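User: I'm new to structure prediction. If I give you an amino acid sequence, what do you actually give back? Let's try with this one:
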Amino acid sequence: MTVSVKKNQHLTREMFCDWQEGTLNLQEEELFFKHIGSCTFCAEQFGTWMEEELQEPPAYLKEEIMQRSQLMDVQVVIKAKQTSKQMQLMWYSLRVGLAVVASIFLLTITSSVQNMELQMPVPPEKTQTQEEKRESIADKLNQESSKVTQRLSELANGIFQIERDSSSQEQN
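Assistant: Good question. You get back a string of structure tokens that encode the predicted 3D arrangement of the chain. For your 172 residues, that looks like this:
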């Protein structure tokens, strides 16, 4: 029996049995699998027939899979997936690094603002009110910088919590 699958023709049970017995030559087997890969009806039929039969796979199948896995096109796909995972890790690392740099920058800015004293020439009669204003501005800056520091701390804790959760999920 030869497999000659036309465009509008589906695979038959007889063709499946020929494949299962190993009587198809390499070209016929290739046409058989190409058709299964392009026709959803035949793919479903193939799956159903395989479930019905539930026999040992052909003896040569393991060897073919091992040989196929060593071919260049399969290796390229494997390397691309590995590279993709490495790129995801690098992107994540860059985001975490950027968050750390931004945190350090903001902490440095807020601490220097807290230590900064406003030096403005003031007429003698308005000295007290200006000092009160300076203190209130310094107090406000101090309070707001504390809020910023707290938010950054929460953000950093959240990022590290996500990292721990994702690493524990990967281990499971």
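You can read the tokens as a compact description of the fold. Here is one thing that stands out. DSSP finds six helices and no strands in the chain.
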